[in-house]
Amino acid sequence: MIEKALDTLWLEERKAAALIKQPMRGILGIILAFAFFMGLWWVFMDPRGILRWYTPQYGYMYIRWLLIVAIWQAYIFNFWPFRPNWMEKTHPLKKGLILVTMNFAITGLLIWVFYYGIFGTFAVPYFSWFELRKTGLSDFFAREYSSLAILMMAAIASWLSPIWPSAFENYPWHKLTQPAKGFTVFAVTFLLTTYIYFIFMHPHYRVLFYPWQEFTAAFPWWYESFHTLSGNFNVGWIMCATVSVWLMETIFERYPFCLVKSQPWRGIAGFFCILLLAFILFFTFVFLQDAVWGPSVEGAKRLMAPDWRYLHTGELAVILLAIALALYFYFDNWPRRFSTEVNILVRVAVTIIGAFALHWLYYQYSHMLLGTQSGYSHPQQFPMAPVILFINVMLYHNWFMDGWPGKRIKQE
Amino acid sequence: MDNDFSRRSFVKGMAVGTLAGYFATAGLSSTVFKNALLPEEKLNLTDIGQIKGLKIKVISETSWYDNNVFLNDVKKAGGLLVNQYEIPWTREGVKAGYQGDNLGGFATYIEAELLDGKVMKILLDTGWNHHWMEKRFNEEGVAEKLAKKEIDFMVSSHEHIDHFFGIQATTKYNPDIPIYVPKGFYQEGFDLLKGKSFPKANVKNDHPHKGKVTVLDSKQVNVLYPGIALMTFDVPIILRVFGEQAFVFNVKDKGIVLVTGCCHQGIISYMEAVRKNIAGGDKIYAVQGGLHISPFEDWDPQYDDLIMAFHKYGVQKIGCNHCTGFITAEKMLKAGLPVVKGTARHMSKRDIYLGNGDELVIA
Q1: Domain membership flag for residue B291
Q2: Cβ neighbours of B302 in A, within 8 Å
């Protein structure tokens, strides 16, 4: 029994009509999204391309925040300041152009004004490229280190931001109107993100600088159990948590926590369901890597490094998510004709098979397409970056443009 | 009733999910299941033989002179993944540079005495700036040995700028020298060997190589002579390079000595590979060369993992330099690791580790 949601999003209310039959609609959608992704990658990221921001951390930081900002736009602010009427009547191309431009502009403002200009300048210097440079660090590493800090916060935001609208249905602020609701949920989730960041990521920065910054950050408390001082351990499981939120939201249709009758219990149950799924993903991926490459070795680099293995769990999870989202957005969350449980099982199976295929394709061909280096565990490149950018494009296409030209909102 | 039903269904669902989740993950990765399911470690030991003694002379460990100038070149070009043959490297106007040129290079000269008394003379890498490398080759007598064809072969550890772009400093004196390269060399690398220029990167080779080039892969330990072997690692490396190889010497009465160019595979990973693939690999006496830890005086908590784990291998001499980084050397010394000090001559900046003209003798 699926319980009625306390608060619904415009995305859930919109009624888009299919203009092309399946599977052509799905295939066309994926081709279009991939083409747009390749264009963005070439212009902004490709080491052979125009701007070459994938240095790697600098471009990776933008990719991460574009995702969070898209979540804020669609899930937290429910497309405010645009009204549902405008969202329904505006041509998807025009709507896409405006919303994507907003997405880029907010991301730019966030990084250049909030992080570099305020947070990094007046609070924690490692969040600012320019403040780090003043300490004597090379310009290149000042930008790389600050980008890493900013993107680590993004990793947490990508987990926590969607939880409130998705699991808690914006309870207890569900009755507020926009923008009050959006700003409230944004403030709460951003505050939580900041707290979590300082517990799980800040200790990484104690040991990143020389000498260790022992007066400003705790010793990486996970070291004894997980054999690395690197925050990549936390990046790994937190990315699994991010992916779990979206798996729950898409192919799991919020099952089983949607069975709980009332808030806040539904939200609390949702939070723990997501966490449980995250740990299942995390430990499964760690185990799979141990099985394929043998146990990791403390102090080793690359394939054998514990910190890389943890990071790779996040990378594997994101690959899994790309397939789940493609199934959800482009193939109408197939199948839908069985019971909820069977539908979910089939989708999970399809997602796992698809993820294996994408993983193989990535490591076979990505270096040719993306201008990166072939092989596993390059210390300066992250499969998460292109895969998240592809996910961003799928979100732009389906959230901002209603999946056009495959689908279009029905005009009443 | 509805409330009860939903709650009961949820609790049931969660209980089943948690149990399934446990057995699928924590259960599998717990010690009992892990031991049963993970394959046992396989040792595939190769007996490489022994040598009597080893002399390792640092010809040049200074890859570039001004780190900021180098990093700005990288940043302007688009970061650490850009193809090294397409980056306009700064070659003039650098105060700290050699005759204003920021480029230096890495090369090591090795003499390995076989058990029958024959001495194998080996050049590991050939640097970057050929003016600088020629100067160093002449100062250390390497140029003369090359010209007299006394050096038996050259090993290119990997294709990086600072280890390979100065190829003409070697081929000028001996264009016929046999060269070993690791699998993964790009076509540009082979073209440079044959005399092709790359104007964008300010690199050329006026003395095309005419000798034999052997490509070594990672499928096996490549034993070159008794007691002298090369191991190749299929590693992707910054600036669009792939593959690195490093020496394994087995010195009688001492143990294994590892000599590296840059060690992008990671020194712990390298020692682990030696332990699993070479007879006697569990007793590593010394390591020498670049350990690629903080080459740009940058840092990562992972490098502290490495320093903290290094003790377990019982290495008695760490003759590191080059891309090991000064921060690493300082931390290693602080951690009580046996880093061999240098003399800070011939433009090596500090004596904290082996520098240009310094020698490590194992006999």
Answers
A1: yes
A2: 228-230, 232, 301, 305, 307-308
